Amino acid sequence: MKKSGWSVGSIFSLWLVIALCTGIASLAGYSIFSHFPAGVIAGTMAFAAGGILAMLVDTMIPEAFSETHNLAGLITVLGFMVSFILSKIG
User: Fold this and answer.
1) What is the pLDDT of residue 24?
2) Using one digit for the tens of pLDDT, what is the confidence trace for 6-22?
3) Coil, helix or strand for 81?
4) What are the residue ranges of helices labelled H in the chain?
């Protein structure tokens, strides 16, 4: 952003607004979804996880593929497996 000509104050302000909006959205989501059944919460979390995966694929995987070529898919799957295992251990 700085290379594009944004001032440091503008960059900081933008990220501050993003952080505040994220915190408010998290609080609202927690408040609203705390009364919903487990199935609705699970479905919403699965949808959110899909959105995060889509964002990762869109931004990070093309760069990883350009550097590791055929191993990018395997490394991605292994990373998700490790994350899943660690989430179940803790």
Assistant:
1) 97
2) 999 999 999 999 999 99
3) helix
4) 8-33, 38-59, 61-68, 71-89
pLDDT digit string (tens) for 41-57? 889 888 888 888 777 77
φ, ψ at 34 (rounded to 5°): -65, -20
Radius of gyration of the chain (CA): 18
Q: Residue 53 CB: number of other CB atoms within 10 A?
A: 13
| C-alpha dihedral (50, 51, 55, 56), degrees to nearest 10 | -30
- For residue 43, the one-letter residue type is G
Residue 78 binned pLDDT confidence (cut-offs 50, 70, 90): confident
| Residue in 44, 33, 46, 79 with CA at minimum distance from that of residue 60 | 79
